[in-house]
Amino acid sequence: AENQSLNDENKLLWTEMGSMKLKMDILEGHSRRNNLRILGIDGSLNVSWSETERKVRDFIKTDLNMPEMENVEIERTHRKSRNPNKCTIIVKFTKFKDKDSLLNRATRVFSVDSNHRVHKDFTDRVRQHTRELSRRLV
Question: pTM (2 decimals)?
Answer without folding.
Answer: 0.79
